[in-house]
Amino acid sequence: MKKFVAILSFLLSLFFVVPAQKVNVYERPLQYERSRDYDAKHYRIALTFDLDKKYFEGENRITLTPL
Fold this sequence. Notes:
Shape: flat
Distance between the termini: 69 Å
Radius of gyration: 26 Å
Largest sheet: 2 strands, antiparallel
Structural class: alpha+beta
Strand content: 35-45%
């Protein structure tokens, strides 16, 4: 049985040949960085978990400075 599965897998793999993806890195569209007028200095995330109720809550505080 194992021999049959191995031969069948090999034969099926011959029919499902997937060509490699061809990507020309020099013709890709340029990805520009987002413009923003602030700098994120610090992220603070405070979470509390209630494992019995499968529940969590929290708050997120972000400290920003202008550029």
